[in-house]
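Example 3.2
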Amino acid sequence: MLVWPVVCGAEVASRTKAVGFGEGRLTVEVPDANWRNQLAAFTPRYLSSLNELLGSQMVSDLRFVVCDLKRPSADRMAGNSEIKNQKS
């Protein structure tokens, strides 16, 4: 999860947060549906960059979850809207 800011860049990293990784899926919190949709368009690039940095095919899927990044994490986990993007 620490590589997310390196892959997405400082501007995107300041508005998003990688919050989970399991079974090849990286979950990233985003502030709204517009951000979710825009970042989803970059999924192939992000997957390629993540795996290049990690030196293996560890990440096969990204999930962008809309949340209020100002609320504490426990509160956010209760009511997230999400979109799943699978590698083609």
